[in-house]
Amino acid sequence: METIVLKFGGSSVADNEKLNIVANKIIKKYDSNKNIVVVVSAQGKMTDNLIKEAENLSSKPNKREMDSLLSIGEQITASKLAILLNELGYSAISLTGWQAGILTNEEPQNSKITYINTEKIKDELAKRKIVIITGFQGIDCNNNITTLGRGGSDTTAVALAVELKASKCYIYSDVDGIYSADPKMIEHTKKLENISYEEMQVLSEEGAKVLHDRCVEISEKYNIPIIACSTFNEKKGTNINYILEETGVKSIVKKDVSKISIVGYGMDSDEEILEKIIGIANKNNLKIANIDITKTRISVIFKELVRDDIVKKYHDILIKL
Fold it and tell me: What is the CATH number of the domain that holds 151?
């Protein structure tokens, strides 16, 4: 039977009403005769709140204890979701990272997954249970709880997809795919049907918050297709895979306060795009400090703060809607 991995971020599981939406998404996939493994994040801003509480107790909290504290958020989500699914008549079990066999190195708060013992997961799937696993966490060789750093639940999901030989990994959030720019910043943007692993990794590295860059790296290495889609609608998402549809600008992202990156394959061989980038800067009296060009990215660092409307100007000129 086909196995798929579904990952739900913090905004998707923020309260009980949204957990019901998530449960219905899971049930729909389960009823299509698939083995379902679910990876969840902490609800809403719980991780941020736990960090603040710890910092109120100590100016420099012990890293081991912080990992233990921060792992609680995902456990709450996983248990609540399992309770809900069982109430709805679907057999489900929640597993912590260590119960799921996720082993990591010994670097607290930024651990790397070294091995996953999938025996427990496979046993539960064989019973046709929906297996819900806490993202973002594992256990090291000394039995210490470890966490994978910000965005680590994405990495958990893709790593599990690799080890379970899943056909797909769905990453659900409050946006329904990858866009030509942040749709919260720019009104008229283009949703991408496909984007290559390489282009997506650059976007993640440059500040796009849809996927964690480490998870894209793993999915490319093992050729696990990722589908980025919305928890809150049924619109078709964006496929992240080896497919390279065309050269040219795919997306524009602003990082920090003075850096804009234009992402797409073939950036190092398109002089026209570079001319347009420099022209827009000159027209808006922006002084360029540095330009970094690779085959998938042109990154421009300006000498001053860059307003969001400058991103829109680049988008209007460079993106074909």
Answer: 3.40.1160.10
Name the percent of the chain lying above pLDDT 90. 83
Residues in CB range of 95: below 8 A, 6 or more apart: 78, 120, 121, 124, 131, 132, 133, 134
pLDDT reported for residue 186: 87
Q: Is the pLDDT of residue 257 over 80?
A: no
Residue-number span of the structural domain to which 298 is assigned: 251-318
Strands (E), 2-96: 3-8, 35-40, 92-95
Token couple for 34: 């698939």
Query: Which residues, including other chains, have CB under 8 Å from residue 320's CB and lie 6 or more apart?
Result: 190, 248
Which pLDDT does position 245 carry in this prediction? 63
d(CA 279, CA 270): 15
Q: Tell me whether strands 35-40 and 194-196 are parallel, antiparallel or unpaired.
A: unpaired
Short-list 208, 109, 106, 120, CA closest to 160: 120
The model's pTM: 0.91
Are residues 17 and 162 located together in one domain of the fold?
yes
Q: Distance of CA 25 to CAs 65, 83, 226, Å?
A: 35, 16, 17
Return the half-sphere exposure (C-beta side, CA atoms, 13 A cut-off) of residue 265.
Answer: 13
Instruction: Choose among 181, 174, 184: nearest CA to 235.
Output: 174
pLDDT for 12-42, tens place per residue?
999 999 999 999 999 999 999 999 999 999 9
